[in-house]
Amino acid sequence: MLENPDRVYFEAVVPSETGASIFAPDASLTHEHLDVFAAAGGRLARAATALQELGFRIEHVGSFSISGDAPRELWERVFGTQVESRSQPLSAEHPEVGAVSYLSHVPGVPFTIPSELDGLVERAYPQLPPIFFSSPLPPRVGYHHLRVPADVAMLLRAERVHREGVTGKGVLVAMTDTGFYPHPFYDWHGYSYQATLAPDAVKVETDDNGHGTAEAANIFAVAHDIDFVGVKMGGNATLAFKTAADLHPAVITNSWGYHLPDVAELPNHLKPLEAAVAEAVRDRGITVCFSAGNGHVAFPGMMPEVISVGGVCAHDNLADDGFFDLEASDYASSFDSLVYPGRHVPDVCGLVGMRPGAIYIMLPVQPGCEIDVGLGGGSFPDKDETGPEDGWAVISGTSASSPQIAGVCALLKQAQPGLSPSLIKAILRASARDVTKGRSGMGQDAGDGHDGATGAGLVDAYRAYLLARSTTPRSTATLPPPN
Amino acid sequence: MDAQRIAAEVVPTTSAHAGRVAKALAQMGLRVLHVGASISVDGTREQWEQRFGVWFVEDETTVQEELGKRVSYLRADPASVRVPDDLESLVADVAFVEPPQLH
């Protein structure tokens, strides 16, 4: 990106030794002919020196041209020309990301090579800023973190399920969140990643916050062949959920909720959401995952009908059992619901980092969005050490674990399309990996067996698959005897 | 959503009344967005105040703790809601929507 909009950033082309010019109409800059256009070493050095003596800052001397920059006034005076300020979007496809200003030659205004540069500079051009594309590859950061898809798939043991040919193919998974920016990460991986709007939302291709774009990558890490639809939320979260349910997906995942501490009766304003979730599970057979919260007493994460997903952190060392060292995340919620007596949250866990900020999983976001800017540009553990506009952020929370487990649900639905939401939950709980260490964000301890902090433990996709593939959902009605 | 519009879920007394209630809400000038077990609508503060007598107070809530992100919204006083006479037998509840927290 251009650093200073008041300077001219230029490339000055030095005449070649052979007299051939790269600007000639018949110039052919193929690798066989490239040497023909190269400037003589001595001439390059003399040109760079002459430019420097005139006051230009030289940044690089190459085989064909010299890179440098200069204040506007110097450029205009030396070359007897004029430049003007212009602006262009950083991304042609997504102008909402922002714009960059730069100085450009004014068309039709003369441009003269001064005598000091005669024979040393053939032509010189102000350089335009490039259009930035967010990279499909994440940046490298210097602390323990997980990457998608590989690390998340391995730790949840989804890779072994994939090798059985079960990848989520033919299973529709919906997610309600802040938006779903078309990050190149999704396209490069060949994921089926669609977005739509809740009726009160706008701008289907933007995600100014970045939350939905990021968390969706967790689903694909576990079930890369699903058909995914993200429902961008407007002002009414209930409406977004209902919009998702109307698509009749096999699974809906939701990384949000309402904090209801010390509340024994569900507030009236949340009852329509409760009804919509219950209807989706009971009447439509949709498996609904909700995050348990990050220290929140989260609703609808506490509803008995949903799979409530908490957090476990996998450290980068191995434990005595040969698996990664697992610890209950002190960032994730666990609690007993007062609204639904007997209901403990969470049921099971996905992967979540530790306090202070659960900076743990490298995920794609819309470049320059609130999360990108908010976490970028500083040092771990307060910031994520990625750029503030690079389209990547390291985050987690139970916002990450719910879509991970939704991905596991999708694998089970491919293996056994007839599994009910309650049977899927039972299978996940029965097959989870016990987590015996650590304490949740609410101070509940992990321990042997089912515990307060992690419920049944960290989901194990392969063990769940082994149970699911042999389960036969049966009718409880008495069938008439055969004739 | 337009920040000036206030969203609510209107719950009919039975699902059989949903269509009738939705039509009446639309005739009041509210925007009907979805009809299901409850009816998703939104409208301006003035529309809600005039039609349902509801009072709003300006409030603020944290929606994303890791970023310290807070949003302002108009919180309805549920005790002030008065369902219009012609809908009273058809509407069980009017639930105003509040911003969720991102986890």
CATH topology of the largest domain in chain A: Rossmann fold
Through-space gap between termini of chain A: 79 Å
**Largest β sheet strand count, sense and barrel closure of chain A:** 8 strands, mixed
The total of helices of chain B stands at 2
**Largest β sheet strand count, sense and barrel closure of chain B:** 4 strands, antiparallel
Give, in spatial order, the strands making up the sheet with the most strands of chain B: 2-3-1-6
CATH superfamily of the largest domain in chain A: Peptidase S8/S53 domain
- Distance between termini of chain B? 21 Å
Q: How many structurally independent domains of chain A? A: 2
CATH class of the largest domain in chain A: Alpha Beta
Query: Mean of residue pLDDT of chain A?
Result: 92
Percent of residues in helices of chain B comes to: 10-25%
Helix content of chain A: 10-25%
State the largest interface.
A-B, 50 and 31 residues
Number of strands of chain A: 21
- Series of secondary-structure elements of chain B, N-terminal to C-terminal: EHEEHEEEE
What would you call the shape of chain A? elongated
Radius of gyration of chain A: 29 Å
Which regions of chain B contain 5 or more consecutive residues with pLDDT less than 50? none
Concise summary:
The complex is a heterodimer of chains A (about 475) and B (about 100). Chain A has helices at about 40-55, 70-80, 150-155, 160, 185-190, 210-220, 235-245, 270-280, 370-375, 400-415, 420-430, 460-470; strands at about 5-15, 55-60, 65-70, 85-90, 100-105, 125, 145, 170-175, 190-195, 225-230, 250-255, 255-260, 285-290, 300, 305-320, 325-330, 335, 345, 350, 360-365, 390-395.
